From TrEMBL, chain A:
<feature type="domain" description="Transketolase N-terminal">
    <location>
        <begin position="12"/>
        <end position="272"/>
    </location>
</feature>
<keyword id="KW-0808">Transferase</keyword>
<comment type="similarity">
    <text>Belongs to the transketolase family.</text>
</comment>
<dbReference type="GO" id="GO:0006082">
    <property type="term" value="P:organic acid metabolic process"/>
</dbReference>
<keyword id="KW-0479">Metal-binding</keyword>
<dbReference type="InterPro" id="IPR049557">
    <property type="entry name" value="Transketolase_CS"/>
</dbReference>
<keyword id="KW-0786">Thiamine pyrophosphate</keyword>
<dbReference type="InterPro" id="IPR005474">
    <property type="entry name" value="Transketolase_N"/>
</dbReference>
<dbReference type="InterPro" id="IPR029061">
    <property type="entry name" value="THDP-binding"/>
</dbReference>
From TrEMBL, chain B:
<keyword id="KW-0808">Transferase</keyword>
<keyword id="KW-0786">Thiamine pyrophosphate</keyword>
<dbReference type="InterPro" id="IPR009014">
    <property type="entry name" value="Transketo_C/PFOR_II"/>
</dbReference>
<dbReference type="InterPro" id="IPR033248">
    <property type="entry name" value="Transketolase_C"/>
</dbReference>
<protein>
    <submittedName>
        <fullName>Transketolase, C-terminal subunit</fullName>
        <ecNumber>2.2.1.1</ecNumber>
    </submittedName>
</protein>
<dbReference type="InterPro" id="IPR051157">
    <property type="entry name" value="PDH/Transketolase"/>
</dbReference>
<comment type="similarity">
    <text>Belongs to the transketolase family.</text>
</comment>
<feature type="domain" description="Transketolase-like pyrimidine-binding">
    <location>
        <begin position="9"/>
        <end position="174"/>
    </location>
</feature>
<dbReference type="GO" id="GO:0004802">
    <property type="term" value="F:transketolase activity"/>
</dbReference>
Length: 274, 322
């Protein structure tokens, strides 16, 4: 069980992360708020509770690795990295602007970014490469890959699902941000993914389903993944696209549209952040 | 004076044996395959170093992306199958997962060009030089024979960042003696001459040497350059050839669009405009047939190169006599 104090701390970081996402995307004038807001708790729990990492030494060899395969959620990753201390929070204002270290999709010019995702469906395979190298080098670091649910329509995800089991990659954890929405609408209308857990089970992964906003469930799942031997774990986190902003929730329209600057204070007020 | 000998070599054997040798020298070398590891001879590395050898099956996009992950963790990752599949099937993964982050992944593909013969057009990759050449950070190599393939394995391993090397399927004439030197961005003059320069890569180098023999009998003095490094390309050698001879012919087992001929033309027209002819597959798909039959049908034999060279020399003379 988590200490109540830890839980409060994580909740506070999550609230601040949502605020930074809204502010940075509004400032940029473009970007993907929906899928950034939906996965906040999943990523905050990794960087502020679970992962071994050192913002002062981003290339530390034994650090755990996080790959944001759904690269369009870059504003989320940047907000978390900044709060963790990889770079000043002020930098978030430069998101998507010419000359910025904060590219529209993750890029190595940002300290702490492990992989330049953007083209969907590749990240889990890259995570396999990292996990294989860890085993080869006898290193204990773990690799976490956050996938979008729409991303699983890419066939390569299932190629990777096969390969991770072949190599018994118990040091690899996939996290699915199951918010049910992609750019054109509901995933189940565009190209149905269900029964999703059964698919991963059929590929012989250890499957855990959780509420993607309950920190205790999230951390419990990360711990169980670490304890599971000889096979990889996938955590299917049930989430809500646009979580926290009433008019963005469950709205495909907010997959890739920035709020206007004049909307920001209203949004923050509604979220209880003003 | 270099000449295509009757001795034959095998690029894939050269690749596989040197890769295994490289593996004994460097512990950070890993190899990723996609079910064709016996054919590519990467299995030789696999027998020696099973823990550093990953056969990902018939899933090329996955294989190149896993290679990217291994390189991210500090490995030198070689990934190989037939050119029809890598790069053919996974240009996106090569671009985004390997070239954009400038990772140390070496892509070595065999059965490039028409050399896969009877398998037909689906397997005859005549676009790979073009697709790899236009990706930033990517280097592109096309060795002429087994010996140069062997040397380039080590050259690639010593260079940082991504590299693509294309190999041919069939046994091929030995072009090099044991003392030749290779470097990325360099080329080798195999025969000097003053009337026309033939710039070739891959199996076309041996054809170019035969073409030079044909032309010599007609009194045409021909320089033959093995342009095994297509990107970066040896601009100095091209400019010098243009200035020395005033007539350049390129020869490649690749689409005439976007490959070696285009790369040479880019240098020539910017720095030393001269008469130029390109020998290659004329923007068409191939078909089933023996490799030699296909080379003849698609105009890639020594006689075709010689004929392009004659035309170039005549065109140059017409301009000179004006």
């Amino acid at each position: 069980m988590m200490q109540a104090q830890d839980l409060l701390r994580l909740k506070e970081i999550a609230r601040r992360t949502r605020r930074l996402i809204i502010e940075s995307v509004a400032e940029a004038g473009s970007g993907h708020p929906g899928g950034s807001l939906s996965a906040v708790e999943l990523v905050v729990a990794l960087y502020f509770h679970k992962m071994r990492h050192d913002p002062k030494n981003p290339k530390w060899e034994d650090r755990d690795r996080f790959i944001l395969s759904k690269g369009h959620a870059a504003p989320l990753l940047y907000a978390v990295l900044a709060q963790a201390g990889y770079f000043p929070i002020e930098e978030l204002k430069t998101l998507r602007k010419l000359g910025s270290m904060l590219q529209g999709h993750p890029d190595f010019r940002t300290p702490g970014v492990e992989y330049c995702a953007g083209s969907e469906g590749i990240g889990l395979s890259v995570g396999i490469g990292l996990a294989l190298a860890a085993k080869l080098d006898g290193k204990g670091y773990r690799t976490y890959v956050l996938l979008g649910d729409g991303e699983m329509q890419e066939g390569q995800v299932w190629e990777a699902a096969m390969a991770a089991v072949k190599y018994r990659l118990d040091n690899l954890t996939a996290i699915v941000d199951r918010n049910g929405i992609q750019q054109d609408g509901l995933t189940e209308n565009i190209m149905p993914l269900e029964p999703l857990a059964a698919k991963w089970k059929a590929f012989n992964w250890n499957v855990i389903q959780i509420d993607g906003y309950d920190f205790e469930q999230i951390i419990d799942a990360y711990n169980k993944a670490e304890e599971t031997l000889n096979r990889p774990t996938v955590i299917i986190a049930h989430t809500t696209k646009g979580k926290g902003v009433s008019f963005m929730e469950w709205s495909p329209q907010w997959h890739g549209q920035a709020p206007k600057k004049e909307q920001v204070s209203k949004i923050l007020e509604e979220m209880g952040l003003l | 004076m270099s000449k295509a000998s009757k001795k034959m070599g095998d690029m894939r054997t050269g690749y596989g044996e040197e890769l295994a040798e490289l593996g004994s020298m460097r512990k950070d070398v890993v190899v990723v395959g996609a079910d064709t590891t016996q054919s590519l001879k990467t299995s030789l590395f696999g027998y020696k170093f099973p823990e550093r050898f990953f056969n990902i099956g018939i899933a090329e996009s996955n294989a190149v992306s896993i290679a990217a992950g291994l390189a991210l963790a500090g490995k030198i990752a070689f990934v190989s199958t037939y050119a029809a599949f890598i790069p053919g099937k996974c240009v996106d993964q090569i671009r985004n997962a390997i070239a954009y982050p400038n990772l140390n992944v070496k892509i070595v593909a065999s059965h490039a060009g028409l050399s896969v013969g009877p398998d037909g057009a689906s397997h005859q990759q005549v676009e790979d030089i073009a697709t790899m050449r236009v990706i930033p950070n990517m280097k592109v190599l096309a060795p002429a024979d087994e010996y140069s393939t062997r040397r380039l394995v080590f050259v690639m391993a010593e260079s940082s960042g991504p590299c693509y090397m294309r190999l041919a399927r069939p046994k091929s004439p030995v072009v090099y003696e044991d003392d030749a030197r290779f470097a990325i961005g360099s080329s080798n003059i195999l025969r000097d001459g003053s009337d026309v320069a033939i710039i070739a890569c891959g199996l076309m180098v041996a054809e170019a040497l035969d073409a030079a023999d044909i032309l010599a009998e007609e009194g045409i003095s021909c320089r033959v350059i093995d342009m095994y490094s297509i990107k970066p390309i040896d601009s100095d050698a091209i400019v010098k050839a243009a200035r020395d001879t005033g007539a350049i012919v390129t020869a490649e087992e690749h689409n005439i669009i976007g490959g070696l001929g285009s790369a040479v033309a880019e240098v020539v027209c910017e720095h030393a405009p001269c008469i130029m002819k390109r020998v290659g597959v004329k923007d068409t798909f191939g078909e089933s047939g023996e490799h030699e039959e296909l080379l003849a049908k698609y105009g890639l034999k020594a006689r075709d190169i010689a004929s392009a060279a004659r035309e170039a020399v005549r065109a140059k003379q017409r301009i000179d006599s004006r």
